[in-house]
Amino acid sequence: MTVVLLQVSCNEQKFCTEKEFDVVVDGNRVGHMVLYESDLSTGIAKLDIFEPYRNLGYGSQVVRQTADKYGVVYTAPDNANSQRLLECLGRKCEGREA
Known about the structure:
single chain; alpha+beta; four-stranded antiparallel sheet; 2 helices; 4 strands; about 40% strand; globular
């Protein structure tokens, strides 16, 4: 099971670039991710794995791939689910940084 991120849009904003990705496994669209990228940081704004595909490790793979590519990934400090996922993946959480 290999998770592939297919970029579906790229929107230049004033301070960052918003990129949207479909999360695909074996040709099936299993989720969606929105990423904000700037010269200073990268953040996962939204990661949604569709209901029938949850708890199969797809979200974890997306976060790992993203963190491996960018080195540091930020997430919303008030999003307990993302903080918990990052901690389960062994990422250090300090405020927003993981």
